[in-house]
Amino acid sequence: MKLLVVEDEVKLAEYLRRGLTEEGYVVDVAHNGVDGLHLAMEGDHHLLVLDGMLPGIDGLGLLAALRQSKQTPVLMLTARIRIEDRVKGLQGGADDYLVKPFAFSELVARIEVLLRRTRPTRDVEGTTVLGLADLELDLVRRRATRAGQRLDLTAKEFTLLTLLLRRQGEVLSRTEIAEQVWDMNFDSATNVIDVAVRRLRGKLDAPFERTLLHTARGMGYVLEARDE
Ligand code: CA
Question: How far apart are CA 184 and CA 141, in angstroms?
Fold first, then answer.
């Protein structure tokens, strides 16, 4: 999942970038409204975290311009607590807002809710648990289990497994994995991906009888329950 943070307070922007990256998101950052709008229009972000008061174009202006062509979910950050300002934001097309200062955990929770609401997947409406054979992934609690046993995954491993599970049965190329999970291009990420897949296998498959994560030689990786 790829997020765009538009925030002119550099320290806060950096704090959000680091925190959200640790949560497993791929994060782009812009420090003013003009760059933010450009990135939002050009990019393929799943959600925007948008500060209200920005140099250049302010948050509402950016939102209005964005909404003419894109429906990317927007979570607005605002220092203003006046009700009419919140209403303006929501009328302007924001999907949710958070008043500064906020707790990081609340930001993450609201992002999760918005992504769940808008996620264009083949999941059954409202489903937040993905599964394959005895593997289960709880997207909200960010927990993975096999045969009821908890898998101790890092944030990146969780993101990688989520991607593989959403697209189960499909061979995913290293290029696609690099872009979706690391926001890197293939050349610089090949080794990173192979190492991450090996680590994931050690946790996902090694302790269990049935192998779920398979290598498609020369093509990439596929998660599926094969008859053995
Ligand atoms: Ca600001």
Answer: 27
